Amino acid sequence: MAEEAAGSQVAVIEDDDAVAQVLEMQLSQAGFGVRRYADGGSALRDASRIRADVIVLDLRLPGADGFTVLQRVRAERDVPVLVLTAMGDGASKTRAFDLGADDYVVKPFDVEEVLARIRALLRRSGRPGGPPTVCGGLWVRAVPPAVTVCGRPVALSRREIDLLYALSQAPNRALTRGQLIDRAWGGATAVDGRLVDAYVTRIRGKLADAWSQDGDPPWSVQTVWGVGYKFTCTEPAGAS
């Protein structure tokens, strides 16, 4: 465990002094370097200069809320972000993942669990994305995330792109919801099957709206009852 912490920096963006002190103490004892931001405004102003390997981010912050900070950080960097918040509702989780959060822990929390999740984020970070998916006018790239249909950008969130990419990299093969959580969310335990279903519905709708050619597109995301979902492509890879 110590080898993952050695030299790693964690930025803690948390306005609650008691919570921040516990995190700083435990992270320091585990071998991490720690920098704390006590409000959203200071984190927002420093977003492009935050030197961290992982960010731990509260959502209820003075100055600027955590969603705003997350959006700014994502626009500047691809550092892993663990949301640590009292907001346990599904809408907040979905919004945070849409904006690029990598994991989500609801307060009150177990500090050892948070440390374990930080280590897991460090292990997963820096993995290169694979080749883009190309199928009949659909182009999907994981890093940096982008989707186009017939050459036109499609406004998918980062997590929607991650999910579509995971499906499209296993064409014509059924993937369970658990496999998709592992591939698109890195196994984040805050994600369940219902959230995967909601994301698939949104992806289908956005891709359908983007398709402007006659007839049906040569690709689709299909439900495999009792299993999960699969991406089908009837046009050879590399065709456009």
Protein architecture, described:
With 240 residues, this protein is α/β, with parallel strands linked by helices. The protein has 2 domains: 2-124, Response regulator (Rossmann fold, 3-Layer(aba) Sandwich), CATH 3.40.50; 133-233, Arc Repressor Mutant, subunit A (Orthogonal Bundle), CATH 1.10.10.10. The protein has helices spanning 2-5, 17-29, 40-45, 66-76, 90-98, 111-124, 158-168, 177-185, 193-210; strands at residues 9-13, 33-37, 54-57, 81-85, 103-106, 133-135, 138-141, 146-149, 152-153, 175-176, 219-224, 228-233. The protein starts with a helix and ends in a 7-residue tail after the last strand.
Summarize the structure.
With 240 residues, the protein is an alpha/beta fold. Helix 7 packs across helix 8 and helix 7 packs across helix 9.
Could you list some keywords that capture this structure?
240 residues, alpha/beta, Rossmann fold, Arc Repressor Mutant, subunit A, 2 domains, five-stranded parallel beta sheet, four-stranded antiparallel beta sheet, 9 helices, 12 strands, 40% helix, elongated
